[in-house]
Amino acid sequence: MAQDFGDYYDATAKRPPRKTLLAALDRFAAPGLAVDLGCGDGRDVIEMLRRGWRVVAIDAQAEAVARLVARPDLPAGAKLETMVARFETARWPACDLVNSSFALPLCPPETFPALWQRIVGSLVPGGRFAGQLYGERDSWVGNPGITHMSRAAAERLLAELDTELFEEEERDSITPRGKPKHWHIFHVVARRR
Questions:
Q1: Domain for residue 181, yes or no?
Q2: Of 184, 19, 33, which is closest to residue 101 (Cα–Cα)?
């Protein structure tokens, strides 16, 4: 069942790129090819393009992609390819960076392991993953279609990579849609050997 994300995009429209993305980008000597899984309306994509990266932006919501390509801050001559697809079915090329800000956990638990292997497999040596994983104390635990894991499970997931940033966050706040939520998040930047 499709959700209306318009209110979410409106509420987050002026937010800066995610800190995990910035931490990953700062570790590269030169721009390359990035894939953004769950690009939304482009807060991270714009930063990558601004820095000279080529970007394949993927989102299951056609509205997200439409908003991204219509952004007034889309750099002139941007090397951007877009795709409307779910992570589980999307195909993307080998790349230097896979970014998935607060989107990767929206992959159902039964397909998450295969998706994770595809992400790692698509990274060239020295390539990086940047994004978030949801922890076991997050208030969305039990919601269908969302993957949560313990800290130990997250660390096992990253074992085949060199972890450059791993921050655990747990706090209460209000979502962009105005709902109270308890967040349990692992913020990650990890490099393929």
A1: yes
A2: 19
Q: Structure tokens of 58? A: 């993927």
Residue 2: pLDDT band with limits 50, 70, 90: very low
Contacts of residue 147, defined as CB under 8 A and 6 or more positions apart, other chains included, come to: 104, 105, 106, 107, 108, 109, 112, 133, 134
User: Structurally, how many domains does the chain consist of?
Assistant: 1
How do residues 149-180 score in pLDDT, each as one tens digit? 999 999 999 999 999 999 999 999 999 889 99
- Residue range(s) defining the domain that contains residue 65: 6-10+19-192
For residue 168 the two structure tokens come to 């655990």
Supply the CATH number for residue 179's domain: 3.40.50.150
Helix then strand then coil, in percent of the chain rounded to 5, is 25, 35, 40
Whole-structure pTM value = 0.95
Query: Is residue 95 domain-resident?
Result: yes
Are 186 and 135 in contact by the 8 Å Cβ rule? The answer is yes
